[in-house]
Every structure is written in C-alpha cells, then in structure tokens.
Specification:
With 354 residues, the protein is of the alpha/beta class. 21% of the residues lie in helices and 18% in strands. It is globular, with a radius of gyration of 21 Å.
C-alpha cells in the first residue's frame, strides 16, 4: 500500500509574549475553593530555579530523556510478567467519525484514489493490491501525539536556549525535532488514576489535580515516581466525554494538573509525561498575555524549561482497567514516533506491557 504522510513543521505554539513576572498573584486562576493559586512570582521563580537548561550540556537536544539510561530500560523490561499489551492512544477514526467526542475535528483525512482499470483488475485478480491511499495527518491537535522539544518556546528561545531561528520553512526544525526520538522511548511507565483515588468514575470538566493527589496516589498504589519514569495522569476525560457527550469546544474544558505540580515534576525527574488532554486543567485561569502565567502553565514549563517530552490526548481508560485488574500500576512502556526530519511532533501509539 502506498501512503503519503504530510506533517506541518510549523505547528509551534509560541509563548514569546510571556515575560519575567512581577510579584502579584492572579486572582482569577481556576482551582479548588479555598486554595491559593500559584502566583506569578512563584511560577517565574521556578522558571529560573528549576530549569534544566545546560544540565546535560549546552548542545543537548534530548532534555529529560537523558534520564532514561540502559539500566533504566533493563529494569523496565523486568516489569513484564504477564505479556499483556495495552495501547494508550485514542482510537483514530477517519473523517471525524469519533462519536466518543462529538466536538472532535477529523483526526486525519484518508482518501482512496481509484485508477483506471483497478476495479476490473480487483474483480478478476485475487492477488491484486488495494488501491493507493493518501493519509494527511497533523502532528498536533486533538489526537494522540508526542511533542518534540521544538514545539514551544519562550521569549524566542526553545529548550536549552536554542533560538526560534532553528525553525525554517524548508527544513522544519534544524534542532530539537522529533528525529531525535527515532530510536524510541522505552522505560518504566507509571499510571496515576486520580478518579479511582477520589472514588469517582471521572473528574469534572476543568477539575484540578494537585501535588497532594499525586502523592496520595503513590501511597495508595505503593509506588513512587522516580528519575527516568514515564508518568501518565488519568483524569477520566474520555470516560466523562463518553458518559455525558459534552458539547463544549474540544479541548477547552479538561481536567488535569494544577500549575503547582510544575516544580514537583522537576523534583521527581520525570522523563516523559502523558495525559488525556494537554496535561493542564483547562481553563487554567491564566491568559499568557503580558507578564501573566501561560494559558497551559504545566505544558509550557515542562516542554521549554525542563526539556520534558510530552504525549498529549491519550485515552488511558483501557490501561487503567488492565492495571486495576492486575493491581499493578507500573509497566514497561514503549513510545516510537515517526522518524521525520524536522517535524515538531508526531502521531504516536504508546504501548504498555505488563
């Protein structure tokens, strides 16, 4: 079968307008009543104190994936006991026919071209091939995908200080592109099922997950997130969409991490993070304008300041069901992006192996 994949290399969510903050907090941040939102002063203090820029050398393009060592991969492989594999990706259905999310735009467009004589050949030749097809697929958006470190920047600088000028129309990302992950990511995966922790089938739209939730889950599950881990946060966004057929614009209202979790991710040295949206609870209550905190405070902090690989728009319901059945919340995970030179991201189908 002939397939053509077209990826937009210019899909870079810029946050160049985000400047060094003043000391005044943002009273409009959404969160749990009674909680004090992260202030701009706190957030931008973390930008300086917890940055990984230069940690692995000034030319480093891997970021937190440096934390996945051969020893870490061997330990992850040792977690395989049952030989059970589970996909963490959202099921992609052509031409927007995904009824689980009625607002989701077509995740990709598939077209089949019939050439003269093909139908006649197909009818008479049992060994004839299928018709050629073209698959047009964006690297980002509301589909399971992985973000390269050339995805976001702050004040004209990507992770590790690389200039925005690494991006060109002819070649895409000359540095920090998805080609750096062509050998794949294999490490220990850790699933945190926050609805299970709270005793509900799913979190409400825009509900925040706090550091206290992450650490409570560790205690309940008997595991601790450590250096080189791939951390997957289940908020139940897909379970909620399936149950309620919610009608808000896709991705605008999503349960996820509160901005206070940014520093925790650095402290635990997480190598990769994945969620059922774009990590953050949305709306976050921030605008990203002027000296405000970005609209996606965890996403931008992780990608730009930590150099952390991010996997967005996963469907974690199936792996949560398997993990609960086996009572095992750690597993080997394999993530293999398409090796496209210069791309800022790639569709991806992470596989958990128990």
């Amino acid at each position: 079968m002939r397939a053509k994949l077209i990826l937009g290399v210019g899909a870079v969510a810029t946050i160049a307008a985000v400047l060094i903050a003043g000391a005044v907090g943002h009273a409009g941040a959404t969160g749990e009543p009674g909680r004090t939102p992260t202030t701009k002063a706190e957030y931008y203090r973390w930008v300086k104190s917890d940055s990984n820029w230069g940690r692995w050398g000034k030319e480093d393009e891997l970021g937190t994936l440096n934390l996945i060592t051969p020893v870490k991969r061997k330990a992850a492989a040792a977690l395989v006991k049952d030989g059970v594999t589970v996909s963490l990706a959202e099921l992609q259905i052509p031409n927007g026919l995904n009824k689980a999310d009625p607002n989701n735009a077509a995740p990709y467009k598939a077209t089949w071209s019939f050439k003269e004589g093909w139908e006649q050949g197909a009818a008479n030749d049992p060994w004839n091939s299928a018709p050629p097809d073209d698959l047009m697929l964006g690297a980002h958006g509301n589909r399971s995908h992985i973000d390269a470190l050339a995805h976001n920047f702050k004040n004209g600088q990507f992770y590790n200080g690389f200039s925005w000028q690494i991006m060109t129309r002819d070649h895409g990302a000359d540095h920090l592109g998805i080609q750096n992950l062509r050998h794949g990511v294999v490490t220990r995966g850790v699933l945190m099922d926050i609805p299970k922790l709270r005793g509900v089938p799913y979190l409400k739209a825009s509900e925040h997950i706090y550091v206290s939730d992450l650490e409570a889950w560790e205690k309940q599950a008997g595991i601790k997130v450590g250096p080189g881990d791939a951390l997957f946060i289940r908020a139940g966004n897909w379970a909620r969409r399936r149950a309620t057929h919610e009608k808000e614009p896709s991705g605008s209202s999503s349960a996820g991490l509160d901005q206070e979790c940014a520093q925790w991710l650095k402290q635990r040295d997480v190598a990769l993070i994945g969620s059922e949206g774009a990590i953050d609870a949305l709306p976050s209550g921030y605008t990203g304008k002027g000296d405000d905190i970005p609209t996606h405070p965890i996403h931008y902090f992780a990608n730009v300041m930590l150099g952390m690989t991010i996997v967005d728009w996963l469907d974690l319901d199936a792996i949560a069901e398997t993990a609960a059945k086996l009572n095992r919340w750690e597993f080997m995970v394999m993530v293999a992006p398409l090796p496209i030179q210069g791309a800022t991201g790639s569709p991806v189908n992470p596989i958990g192996v128990f």
